[in-house]
Structure formats: C-alpha cells, structure tokens
Amino acid sequence: MAFAWKQAGVSYNKYLSIAAQAIRKSLKEQARAAAERRSGNELKVSRWENGKQGETKYLGTSEQ
C-alpha cells in the first residue's frame, strides 16, 4: 500500500507544507494570524574553515 502523497507525485516535504497550509487556513482569525507569523522560514548559509564560521549569506525565505 503506497502513501497518498507518493501516489500524487509530491515529496514528503511538499505534502507537509500543503497539510500545514490547510490547517492554518482552517483556524479562526486570531489563531490564523499567529500561525502565519510562525510559518515563515529563512535560508542562510555559512562556510566553515578551520573550525571557524565565515560570512553568512541570506538566500531568502520559503514563501510560496
């Protein structure tokens, strides 16, 4: 028996993103606003050399 998200042709991470978005949309207005503020993610990368962190580059957010 295959999982529904595999049958739909999406990755597990995309499935989780879709599920979280559906849950946030079903919340009442005040709870929805709080959940939306928590939903944003940032991506940053740092190069490490000789055990020390170099410059950090911000690559953006995961907003869809």
TrEMBL record:
CDD domains per record: F1-ATPase_epsilon
InterPro entries noted in UniProt: ATP_synth_F1_esu_mt, ATP_synth_F1_esu_sf_mt
Source organism of the structure: Orbilia blumenaviensis
Family recorded in the similarity comment: Belongs to the eukaryotic ATPase epsilon family.
GO biological process: proton motive force-driven mitochondrial ATP synthesis
PANTHER family listed in its UniProt record: ATP SYNTHASE EPSILON CHAIN, MITOCHONDRIAL, ATP SYNTHASE SUBUNIT EPSILON, MITOCHONDRIAL
Gene Ontology CC terms: mitochondrial inner membrane; proton-transporting ATP synthase complex
Any one GO MF annotation of this record: proton-transporting ATP synthase activity, rotational mechanism
Full protein name: Mitochondrial ATP synthase epsilon chain domain-containing protein
